Amino acid sequence: MRIISVIVPVFNREDLIGGILGAILANSSAVQNPARPGDDKDPPLHPLEGHPGVDFEVIVVDDCSRDATVREVQRYPVRLIRTAGNAGPSRARNIGAEHSRGEILVFVDSDVIIRPHTLGRIFERMDQRPELAGVAGITSLECPYSNFLTRYQNTFLRYRYLWMKEIIDTPWASLMAVRRDAFGAVDGFDVRMKTYEDYDIGYRLGSVDALFYLDKKLDFIHYKRFRFRRLFTDYLRKVANMFSYHLHMRLGGRKAWEAKKPHTWHGHEPHFPPLFVGMPRGAIFTYLITGPTIVNLIVALTLGSFGVYFWISLGLLLLGPLSMTTFWLYLLRVQGVWFTLRGMLTQPILALVAELGVMISIARAIFGRTSSDFLGASQ
Asked: What's this model's pTM, rounded to 2 decimal places?
């Protein structure tokens, strides 16, 4: 018998966890009884639809939720593990892996709805290609929220994934499958990291020549809502942490890697994917030029100077959106004209926020400060 372990870290998700677990159990060929309680013993094994001899288990790791999440989880035939203290998603995933039985570990975030064929497709990909360490899915175009910023971010993320090659440097923990032996080879997720822990494990798996496959037909629905403030603070924090992480690991060289996980490298050289992993070139260009050109235009307007320098800056500012023509055409096709026009106004603002995040990370490096969000902080 072959087993897949589905691991769901959760914190305060009483409104969503039932739907997440129902979607996972829909991958089974057996009829499930949602009233059957879970416990902290070995969970029941569910036969995988279309794959005789293959079962899957579901392990939910509750990270000290303060709402009714636990009560909701106990309605389903899954294993429930409760952490002793709020440990963060990385530690919760590692705890789930430690208590699992599967040869393939599938991590599903507690705001992700998978399809009824997801687990079967993951198994097929990894069974057919033993050289793969894991498989990742992509965001669906189907968005559960109707507001513009959420739909825009959801569509942009999907476009990024569609633009990427099939073999990727880093997975993302929203929907990520990895072989148990590969996961163990790098000691799982770094529990000190609060953000980019999935990118980090991808970098470390790359150090031992592990390959991740991006299945662009393996999509999931992401229940993550963005309002104006949340989207921009999310951009600022994530860009600042990502850039700080890269600066620390690149400037620190082998010493930084060995200090991070001294017993896992087995003589392999540090592996660094591109800094702007999965980012289309047009978006990179926009992020790089938007801030300086806007500053230059503001200075020129303030001084009343409309010389060559002003017109060059204005031309560069207009060139930014043009460099993302393929994305705008994609957006026009899937979301329509008005949505695309709003997106063209939104993207330069996001670029400015991203540049501010880069400046924050550089300031951290200059003044020798690190962020507890990505490095060295106990959770």
From this structure: 0.84
Q: CA 141 to CA 235: how far, in whole Å? A: 20
The highest-confidence range among 2-16, 299-313, 356-370, by mean pLDDT, is: 2-16
Burial class (CB in 10 A: 0-12, 13-18, 19+), 166: exposed
Tokens 């992509």, residue? 138
The mean predicted confidence, pLDDT, of the chain is 81
Q: Are residues 215 and 249 in the same domain?
A: no
- Other beta carbons less than 10 A from residue 375's beta carbon: 20
What is the Cβ-side half-sphere exposure of residue 367, based on CA atoms within 13 angstroms? Answer: 8
With respect to residue 377, please indicate whether it lies within any of the assigned structural domains: no
Residues 93 and 221 in one domain: yes
Helices (H), 304-336: 308-322, 325-335
Tell the burial category of 209 from Cβ atoms under 10 Å away from its Cβ (0-12, 13-18, 19+): exposed
Q: How confident is the model at residue 71 (pLDDT cuts 50, 70, 90)?
A: very high
Q: Which residues, in sequence order, are CB contacts of 237 under 8 Å at separation 6+?
A: 195, 357, 373
3-state DSSP assignment of residue 282:
helix
Bridge partners, residue 3, by sequence: 55
Average pLDDT over residues 82-106: 93
Give the count of domains, the chain.
Answer: 2
**Count of CB atoms situated within 10 Å of the CB of 71:** 10
* pLDDT tens per residue, range 73-93: 999 999 999 998 888 899 999
Higher pLDDT: 375 or 9? It is 9
Does 203 share its domain with 81?
A: yes
Beta strands in the chain (DSSP E): 2-10, 46-47, 54-62, 79-82, 104-108, 112-113, 132-139, 167-168, 175-179, 211-222
Least confident segment among 57-71, 213-227, 315-329 = 315-329
Q: Is residue 321 part of a domain?
A: yes
DSSP 31: P
Cβ proximity of 44 and 145 under 8 Å:
no
Q: Containing domain of residue 220, as a range?
A: 2-225
Q: Is residue 70 part of a domain?
A: yes
Q: What is the DSSP letter of 118?
A: H
